[in-house]
Amino acid sequence: MPWVNKKECISCRKCVKKCPVDAIDMVKGKALILNEKCINCGKCIKICPVKAILKDREIVKFKVQSKLKALKGSLSENKSKKAKKRLIKSHIRQMKMQQKVLSETINELKRIKL
Prior knowledge:
about 110 residues, Alpha-Beta Plaits, two-stranded antiparallel ribbon, about 55% helix, 4Fe-4S binding protein, 4Fe-4S, Fe-S_Ferredoxin
C-alpha cells in the first residue's frame, strides 16, 4: 500500500482529487491513505508533485533510515563504548521481539477461515 511521508506532504490535495476510490483524506493538513479503501492503483504516487507518497519498497528503506538516524542520535548521547554497545543490543532485542510478534500474527492471519 502507498504511504504518505507527512514531512514532505505540501497539502496540495491533488492525490485526494485523483484517487478513484476516495481512499485519501486530509488530516491536520496532510494526506492520509485509508488502507481499508485503497486498491493500490498508484495514481496518487504518480500525481504527487513532491513525491511525498511512497511505494511499499520505498517505505521499508525510509523506515530503516529513520530508525538508524534515531539510533545514531541516541548513540551520540552516550560517551562510553560499553554504553553504546548495550544500547545497540537493546535495540536488537526489541526489534527481534517485534519481528516475532509480526511473524506470529501473520501465521494466525493465514489460519483464518473465511
